[in-house]
Structure formats: structure tokens, C-alpha cells
């Protein structure tokens, strides 16, 4: 897990719940549709939000976990359990409103999803394959952290499989590279990451200039 000394200071903190459940067609994740205004307008996201004063914990990660639980209840009307840290995302410097967000793998507790009107338009349980296919067809708007997380779930058929594959949480400091083919989002280990580059030819990036997006790592 990243040490707190590695964090960029001064950023607000949020928690996001990647809520999973088993289904006959394969493991599903909960995605919520944001309204066409405000943060992440018109996009499909995992439930979550900023840490508030009543989100208690001994450190930043614990407070972010509490925020993920609370926000999931507020946005989707469900309880979640067994939250495990999977990643931490810092937005690129070009973003005017930057928030460091911890992602947690979580399981639903059998409640019926009831979205919060005005804050969430719709909710859907979908396989990672289904969500990425619709995004590739231009039917879903996803942001890179959501896309990368869904992409990472592709090999797993069950929640138990996804949990068994978890390793050390990844720190992802996003940087943007403008190319002739469009915008590329970079993370640590890519040869062109300005602060944490890999060796010549190393890749950890999404090319978003055209659909379908492509992820390179290695």
C-alpha cells in the first residue's frame, strides 16, 4: 500500500465503492448514471464521494472507506460489506477540481437498489465485458479510472475470483499526453510519465483518441 508520504498534499479525499455481485451470466458491477450537470456529468460511475466530517477513521484510507459506504447508501440505497482497498487515483494537473480518490472492492448485501433522485439518474448491474462493449460502441460515457477498473475485472468470473487476485493497492497519478492520434492517459511506469517513468518502451496508458479505447501495460 502506498505510504502517506507518497501522496500529494493539499488534495481533498474521496472514497469509491466498486460493488460486485455474482450472477448467472458472470460477475456484475454496479454502475450509476450521473445527471447531465455537475461532477462527471452524463457519465456512468461507481458509487462514491468526498470524505465528510462524520466519516470517521484512524487515517485517510479508513475515512475514505467510510465515505464509500455512506455514499453508496445515499446514492444507491444499499448496504455494502467487506471493503478492500484496490487503488488510489490522483487526477492530472490540468483538472481544475482535483480530488484524490480511493477505490474499494465491495460486495452488496442483498438490498434492492433505489437511486437518489436528482443525484443519480439510473443504476445498472452489468458485467465488466458488457460495460466496456457499450462504451466502445459509444453508448456509455466512462472516465478512465472507471474504465481501467472494469478492464482489470475482465479475467474474473466470480467475486471470489476477483478478491483472490487482489494484490498491493496501486497508486495511479494520472498524467496526460497529447498525441497526433488523440489524448493518452499515463500512469506510473510508462516511459513518458514525467515523475515516475519506466524504461524505454514501457507502457501503462490508455489511448482515448478513438473508440474502442486501448490499454497498454508492460
Explain what you see:
Helix 2 crosses helix 3. The chain is 19% helix and 31% strand. The chain folds into 2 domains: 4-172, Nucleoside Triphosphate Pyrophosphohydrolase (Alpha-Beta Complex); 174-218, no CATH class. The relative contact order is 0.17. The protein starts with 12 loop residues before the first strand and ends with a strand. By secondary structure, the protein is of the alpha+beta class.
Describe the secondary structure blueprint for this structure:
Blueprint: E1 13-21, E2 28-33, E3 44-45, E4 48-50, H1 60-76, E5 80-90, E6 100-108, E7 122-126, H2 128-136, H3 144-153, H4 159-164, E8 170-173, E9 175-179, E10 182-186, E11 204-207, E12 214-217
Helix pairs in contact: 2-3
Helix/strand-derived category reads alpha+beta
Runs with pLDDT <50, length 5+?
A: 1-5
Determine the number of helices (DSSP H or I, runs of at least 4 residues).
4
- Give average pLDDT, whole number: 94
Broad shape: globular
Radius of gyration: 17 Å
**N-to-C SSE string, H for helix and E for strand:** EEEEHEEEHHHEEEEE
Which features would summarize this protein structure in a list?
eight-stranded mixed sheet; alpha+beta; 31% strand; metal ion binding; single chain; 2 domains; Nucleoside Triphosphate Pyrophosphohydrolase; 218 residues; globular
Quick take:
Helices cover 19% and strands 31% of the residues.
Amino acid at each position: 500500500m502506498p505510504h502517506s508520504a507518497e501522496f500529494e498534499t493539499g488534495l481533498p479525499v474521496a472514497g469509491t465503492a466498486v460493488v460486485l455481485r455474482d450472477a448467472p451470466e458472470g460477475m456484475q458491477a454496479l454502475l450509476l448514471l450521473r445527471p447531465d450537470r455537475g461532477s462527471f456529468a452524463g457519465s456512468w460511475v461507481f458509487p462514491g464521494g468526498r470524505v465528510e466530517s462524520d466519516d470517521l477513521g484512524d487515517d485517510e484510507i479508513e475515512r475514505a472507506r467510510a465515505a464509500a459506504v455512506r455514499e453508496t447508501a445515499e446514492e444507491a440505497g444499499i448496504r455494502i460489506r467487506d471493503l478492500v482497498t484496490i487503488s488510489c487515483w490522483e487526477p492530472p494537473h490540468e483538472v481544475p477540481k482535483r480530488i484524490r480518490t480511493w477505490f474499494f472492492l465491495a460486495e452488496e448485501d442483498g438490498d434492492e437498489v433505489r437511486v437518489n433522485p436528482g443525484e443519480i439518474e439510473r443504476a445498472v448491474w452489468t458485467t465488466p465485458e458488457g460495460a466496456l462493449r457499450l462504451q466502445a460502441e459509444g453508448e456509455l460515457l466512462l472516465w478512465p479510472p472507471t474504465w481501467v477498473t472494469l478492464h482489470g475485472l475482465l479475467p474474473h468470473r466470480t467475486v471470489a475470483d476477483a478478491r483472490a487476485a487482489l494484490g498491493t493497492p496501486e497508486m495511479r497519478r494520472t498524467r496526460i499526453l497529447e498525441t497526433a492520434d488523440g489524448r493518452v492517459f499515463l500512469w506510473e511506469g510508462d516511459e513518458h510519465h514525467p515523475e515516475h517513468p519506466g524504461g524505454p518502451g514501457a507502457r501503462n496508458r490508455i489511448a482515448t483518441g478513438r473508440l474502442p479505447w486501448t490499454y497498454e501495460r508492460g
